[in-house]
Amino acid sequence: MSEFRSTPDGRITDERPWWDVFPWWSLIIVTLLAWMGWQIIDSPDYRLAWERIIPGLALTLQSTVYAFGISLFIALLAGTGQMSRNVVIRNLARTYVEFVRGIPMLPLIFTVALIVVPELTELLNARLTKWFDWEFKLSFQMRATVTLAVIYGAYMAEIFRGGIQSIPPGQSEAGRSLGLSRRQTMKSVVLPQAMRAIIPPMGNDFIAILKDTSLLSVLGALEITQRARQFSASTFKFREGYFVSAFIYLVLTLSLSVLLGVLERRMTRDREGER
Amino acid sequence: MTTVVPGSDRSKPMISLKGVSKTFGRNIRAVIDIDLDVAEGEVVVIVGPSGSGKSTVLRCINLLEVPTAGTVMVDGFDMTSSDTNLDQVRAEVGMVFQQFNLFPHLKAIENITLAQRKVRNRSQEEATDVAMRQLTRVGIPEKADSYPRQLSGGQQQRVAIARSLAMDPKVMLFDEPTSALDPEMVKEVLDVMLGLAHDGMTMVVVTHEMGFAKAAADRLVFIDEGEIVEVGPPEEVFAHPTQERTQAFFNKILH
């Protein structure tokens, strides 16, 4: 048996016919989505589910953007912190990353939302009420969003670290040999190059955060999943409720994937011919 | 800080290595007790078998490699002293790498202006002016707006040389600058280096190009197993090597 395909006249070839190369999967998914879309327009049950669930979209998107923004900030600190020359900073950053990455998301959300945040705010508020007659409150939704950010901060810290460490040492050596300081070399030489390795996985994590905002439902935040749960539980229309929520998530994540793909292709096109 | 005024004392060598050793890990002794002075305007070529420690010696000069023992003086500054501002002295010491190490995200001209602006605090216009002058000097002013990936190896290495020269260094270090080049591009880089040597630049060059050593070197240093085995004017060392190891090395590479 040859590892290559053979043509009708018995030759081997490494060319693949169109039906072998065609992305059938996208056709299948588009068909499914079209069918779901049609159901929502056509069937009263699906339309009702849609009308009850879609208001959660705003909260889902908002939590995603907040969580991503905060985790980006945390990741930059923790990622560069792990490479710090300061032994305390380096080990604190490493502890945070290893600790958070080792705990599943759901228990971590409960821990932070039900224990860490209340106790911290209580501590904080003891002072705040005394001095400013003001209380600091964090809604359950914000608590969960912050938890997501803390979790993804650790994952994304690893992306930062990996991206920076993927730049060959010769680059910093060249920078340093020109008299640039460590900081200048990092900022003008290493980071701009590392961004190419950092942006694609960052985009994947953005999508992952979007999906994981569904975990906020355990704290009662009225995002898509929670609304689907409420709708299904009150009407016993489980199929309609969860199909519609899956439909919304798929449309969001798939269009983000396409966008990300375009971005990545553009970035690799820039690199064409690079040694 | 020492009170030495840099460059004021002509009798003082530009570079002075005293008892320099470098040990990697526990017991890999890459460089053993090297003494080497390089006078202002002198061209010293270091040769030796691969793995002999010659690149490590070179990298000890601008402290890309921190010596385990010994002192490194450059332009009157003790590089191994914690009082010395390394960045400041490194700006005076240009370095050219085997792999060029151009910044791939920057155009040739930006490669050359970056450190001028950040370290020498030159304005954009002044830095661009200097960069264009250096690009002309290495013969490729028309490549100013090219990215490194669009240049041949020889062109990249010439941009790298221009990048170092734009800092107005007092010393240039070359770490096997032609070893990663396709054969037809070696000459264009060596020609630039010969020009520099004729212009009186202080140079330390690690290379396998014996032709360059003959043409440009004031002194040839042969290093083997981390030690300086033989030093002398190139024609003398080539014609009458006094050490067996030097002879054996030349026998292998000069046919």
Give a description of the structure.
Chain A is built from 11 helices and 2 strands, in the order ββααααααααααα. Chain A is mainly alpha-helical. Chain A has a domain at about 55-220: MetI-like (MetI-like fold). Chain A is flat, with a radius of gyration of 24 Å. Chain A starts with a strand and ends in a 5-residue tail after the last helix. The model of chain A has no long low-confidence stretch (mean pLDDT about 90). With about 260 residues, chain B is α/β, with parallel strands linked by helices. In chain B, the strands form 2 sheets. In chain B, strands 6-7-8-3-9-10 form a 6-stranded mixed β-sheet, sandwiched between helices. A 4-stranded antiparallel β-sheet of chain B has the order 2-1-4-5, with helices on one face. In chain B, strand 7 (about 170-175), helix 6 and strand 8 (about 200-205) form a beta-alpha-beta unit. In chain B, helix 3 packs parallel to helix 5. Chains A and B meet through helix 8 and helix 9 of A and helix 2, strand 6, helix 3 and helix 5 of B.
Features:
heterodimer, A: 275 residues, mainly alpha, MetI-like fold, two-stranded antiparallel sheet, flat, B: 255 residues, alpha/beta, four-stranded antiparallel sheet, 9 helices, 10 strands, globular
In short:
The complex is a heterodimer of chains A (275) and B (255). By secondary structure, chain A is mainly alpha-helical.
Give unreliable regions of chain A as ranges. Answer: none
In N-to-C order, the SSE pattern of chain A is EEHHHHHHHHHHH
The helix/strand class of chain B is alpha/beta
Principal-axis shape of chain B equals globular
Task: Tell me the greatest interface.
Answer: A-B, 22 and 28 residues
What overall geometry of chain A do the principal axes of the alpha carbons give?
flat
Q: Would you identify the CATH H-level superfamily of the domain at 56-222 in chain A?
A: MetI-like
Mean pLDDT of chain B: 92
Number of strands of chain A: 2
Percentage of residues in helical conformation of chain B: 25-40%
Tell me the β content of chain A: under 5%
CATH class annotation of the domain at 56-222 in chain A:
Mainly Alpha
The appropriate CATH architecture of the domain at 56-222 in chain A is: Orthogonal Bundle
Percent helix range of chain A = over 70%
